[in-house]
């Protein structure tokens, strides 16, 4: 199955390339940001016409959560209009779309595992525009998989794990938010799950949740990072109110993964096990 990866230079795009290489999969193509620009419909049509993809993985997104509160139009252009553009071109060329979304589509006031059909009620611009993109895909293209994920990190790009390792080496003490609960997700694991969906041959279209197993606060996540990397730094828990940000974050966004596991037989690693793999690769 020939597969195009849009947003290939981002964290997940780089992880898809790494996993495809590791698995000796040579059917993925990674166009650059100009050739695969999700805001340039003519460029997309030219790319699809040349490559004739069976699958398209859309990793392109505006993800600067706080900045989005000031750049609403740009955030919406990429996360909503860009997603719609990709869906429309996929429909025209008969390609199946795998689109990556976020736990931030939820309000975060529940304390139960979030299921795919739970009411989505974003509380920030980023989450709202990602939900708008989801809805446009659903009304445009039947052949789609929307995969919501959370707290992505890896060896690539900027992320919480790399930031903590850097700060832990520079400072003696850090204060980390302890009242936001979610599931860290190793982007290498998510990339593997996406490739498993393609390889399954199943046409079980719809919305799915994928994150690593388990739930932690950012404080516990940071402690895990420092323990596994043998970084000596004092970590203190603080409430969200002590570290105000422009965008409001969900307090609880732990997602139920039973649907993706039962449908595709995907094994989901525990967050700390995957974190150890990533840290070992980062510091080796």
Automatic annotation (TrEMBL):
<protein>
    <submittedName>
        <fullName>dTDP-4-dehydrorhamnose reductase</fullName>
        <ecNumber>1.1.1.133</ecNumber>
    </submittedName>
</protein>
<keyword id="KW-0560">Oxidoreductase</keyword>
């Amino acid at each position: 199955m020939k597969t195009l990866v849009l947003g290939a230079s981002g964290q997940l795009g780089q992880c898809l390339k790494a996993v495809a290489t590791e698995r000796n999969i040579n059917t993925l193509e990674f166009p650059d940001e100009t050739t695969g620009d999700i805001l340039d419909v003519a460029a997309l049509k030219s790319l699809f016409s040349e490559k004739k993809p069976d699958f398209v993985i859309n990793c392109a997104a505006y993800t600067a959560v706080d900045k989005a509160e000031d750049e609403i139009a740009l955030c919406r252009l990429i996360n909503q209009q860009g997603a719609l553009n990709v869906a429309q071109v996929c429909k025209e060329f008969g390609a199946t779309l795998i689109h990556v979304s976020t736990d931030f589509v939820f309000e975060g006031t529940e304390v139960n595992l979030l299921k795919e059909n739970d009411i989505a009620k974003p509380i920030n611009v980023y989450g709202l525009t990602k939900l708008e993109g989801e809805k446009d895909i659903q009304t445009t293209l039947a052949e789609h998989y929307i995969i919501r994920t959370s707290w992505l990190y890896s060896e690539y790009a900027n992320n919480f794990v790399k930031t903590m390792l850097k700060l832990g080496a520079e400072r003696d003490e850090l204060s980390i938010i302890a009242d936001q609960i979610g599931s860290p997700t190793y982007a290498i694991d998510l990339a593997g799950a996406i490739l498993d969906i393609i390889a399954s041959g199943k046409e079980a279209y719809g919305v799915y949740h994928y994150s690593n197993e388990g739930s932690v606060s950012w404080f516990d996540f940071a402690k895990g990072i420092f323990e596994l990397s043998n970084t000596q730094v004092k970590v203190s828990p603080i409430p969200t109110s002590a570290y105000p940000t422009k965008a409001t974050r969900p307090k609880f966004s732990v997602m139920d993964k039973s649907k993706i596991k039962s449908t595709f037989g995907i094994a989901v690693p525990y967050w700390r096990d995957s974190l150890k793999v990533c840290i070992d690769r980062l510091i080796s």
